[in-house]
Amino acid sequence: MNEQVQEKLKVLAASAKYDVSCASSGITRRNRPGSVGSAEGWGICHSFTENGRCVSLLKIMLTNHCIYDCAYCINRRSNDIKRATLTVGELIDLTLEFYRRNYIEGLFLSSGVVRDPDYTMERMVRVVKDLRTEHRYNGYIHMKSIPGASREWVDEAGRYADRLSVNIEIPKEQNLKFLAPEKNYQSIFQPMFYIQQGVSASNEERKRFRYAPRFVPAGQSTQMIVGATNESDNDILRLSSALYQRSSMKRVYYSGYIPINTGDARLPALKQPPLVRENRLYQADWLMRFYGFQASEIVDDAFPNLDLEIDPKLSWALRHPELFPIDINKAEQSLLLRVPGIGVKSALLIVASRHHGRITASTLAKMGVVMKKARYFITCGELPILTVNELHPDCIRRALAGKTNPKKEADRRQLSIPFPD
Amino acid sequence: MIVFRYDKTFEGLLTTLFDAYTRRTFPERLLSENEPLPMFSEKAHRVITESYKSLRVWAALEKKLSRAVCGMLMHVWLSELPGSDELLFRYMHKALDAPSSIATHFADKDVMEVKKIAGKVSKEREHLMQFVRFQQAADGTFFAPVSPIYNALPLTMPYFTQRFADQKWLIYDTRRRYGYYYDLKTAEEVTLNTDEHLLDGKLDDAWMTQDEKLFQSMWKEYTLALTIRERINPKLQRQHMPRRFWKFMPEKN
Ligand code: SF4
Q: How much is the ipTM here?
C-alpha cells in the first residue's frame, strides 16, 4: 500500500459517486437499518457523507476507463477526465483493511467497459473470487454485471457475490439506444435473465441438497434514471412492477438525473435534479412492496404522473373517498395500511394493542400515526366526524399540500427514507 | 410515601420486587444506600441483594413476557437514566400481576415509556455497530475507543465477536472506563489500571502499525470523494451520524 493507491482510490471513488454510471445503484441510500420491510440484513451504514448519504459499502470501480459513450455518464469515453485502474491485489487489500477497521459492510464493485464486456467481467470476477476463496472473506459483496455479459461470467460472478445488478437506466428502449448507442434492451435484460435462472436453479438444488451452493443470496437490483428522458411515472412504475414479478428482483432504484455532461444536446438542461419526483417514485415503490398497492392503482393512463405536492398514498385516498372512513378499532391490517398517515409500524402496533381495549386518538399519535393526515380518513369513536366525505377531497388536498412546501419537504427527505406515512 | 433502598444493581432491583411481594408493600420511590429520604416518607426498607431471590423474580418474568420483552427490560436498565429503575419496578410489578403479557398494552404510560427508552438504547447500540473505528496497533491488536451516552457496549458483543472473529481487538468505553478484550476465542470484560493514555481515543504514533495512518487518510479521502456537491445537506448528515461520535472517526478528523 502506498500513496499511489490513495490517488487511484480518489479518482475511482469520484467516478463512482454519481448515481448514473456503471458504478451506480441506489444501494447507498437504502432504508434505515432495522426498519420494517428492510429485507436487507447487511444494512448497516458506517458513515454518512455531507450529503447525508449512507456509506455502507466500499463502492468503487476497478477502472474508470470505458470504451462506451453513454450520454448520461461521467466516465464515457468522450469525456476528458482523470483515469485510473486498480490492480486486483490492491482492490482486495483495500477491501480487507477497511473491513477490519469496521469502516464498511463490504464491497460494491463496478467497472467501466474495457475491451469487451466479458473481458471486463473476468477481471471483476477475479477480485470477488479471490476474496472469497483465498482470503475467506465473509463480508458482503455487490457486483455490477456489465451489460452484454455472457452467461458464463454472470454464472461465475453469482457464485461469489451476494447481489448482482444490471442497471436499466433508461426505461424505454428507443430512448436508451439514443443516449447509449452501444446498449439495447437485450444487453440489459439478458444478463438479468441469467441471474434469475441462476437463482431458480440454485433454489431447486437446495431443495434436494441442503448444502448446495447459493447463487446471489441477496438477489438482484436495478436502477432507472428519472428526468433525463420523456418517460412518464406510469411508464416507470409499470416497468418496476413487471420487474418485481421476478422473484430474484429485490429493489428498483430511481435516480433523479444530475446533469453531469452539460452541453450534450440529447439531454435536458436541468438546473436542479428532480428530487421531489424521485422521492415520490420511491414512495410509490414502497406502496407496491409493503402496502399491497398495484402500480395501476397509483398511476394509470388517465393519471400518468405522480402528484408532486402530496404523497402517492394520500393522492390515491383522495381519489377514493368512498372507501373511507375506516374504523381503527375494527379494520383489518391491510385496510389500515391504506390510510394516509398510518405506516407499517403503526399498523402493526394498532392491531397488536387492540385487544387490550379501545384505541383513542391520543394513543394513535403515540403510536406514530400522523394525525394531521389520518384524521380525515378514520373513526375511532371519539373524533368529531369530519372525514373526507364531509369535507371535499379538494379541500383536504389544499389543507395538506399548502403547508408543506414540496421543495422544503424534498430537502428534508432527500436521500433519507422514502417512507410514505 | 413508601421508600425502599437498594444497591442500584439489576440483581438488587429484582430482589426489591421479591421483597415487595413478600411484604405486600410496593414502594413508590427507590433510593440508593445513602440518598436522603424525601419529606413525608416513613422509614425506608433496606433491600439486601440476594441472587436466589433475583433469579426467582427473573424466572417469573420470563414466564410472563417474551424473550424480546425481557431483553427490552435489560436495555432500559442499561440506559442508566434517572428514574429508569422505578419505571422498571412499576412495569415488572404490572407484568407479574397481569393475567397475560402487558407488552402490547401501549395505552399504558409505563409500557409505552419502556418501549421508548429501550428503543433509544437499542439505537445507541446500533450507533456503536456503525461508528466504532478500529486502529491497528503495532502488535496486531485492533483498538477502538467509544463513549456512548447509554451503557450499550455489552449489547454489541454478539456483533463484534462474530464479525471480527479472526483478529484480536479491544473496545474501550472511555466514559465508563471499562471495555472488552477479544483474544480470538471470547470477549472478556476488562478494566485497565492505567488507561489515561487511551482516554483521548488516539493510539500513540509509536504504537500504531506502519500503514495505520495511510488507511485512515485513505478512508477520509474516500468519503470526501463520494460527496456530491449539488446535494450538500449537513443537517441530514448530523441527524444520521450524531456529532458526539465524530471525535473517534478518522473521516471527521
Ligand atoms: S458503459 Fe456507459 S454507463 Fe457504464 S461506465 Fe461506460 S459510459 Fe459509463
A: 0.90
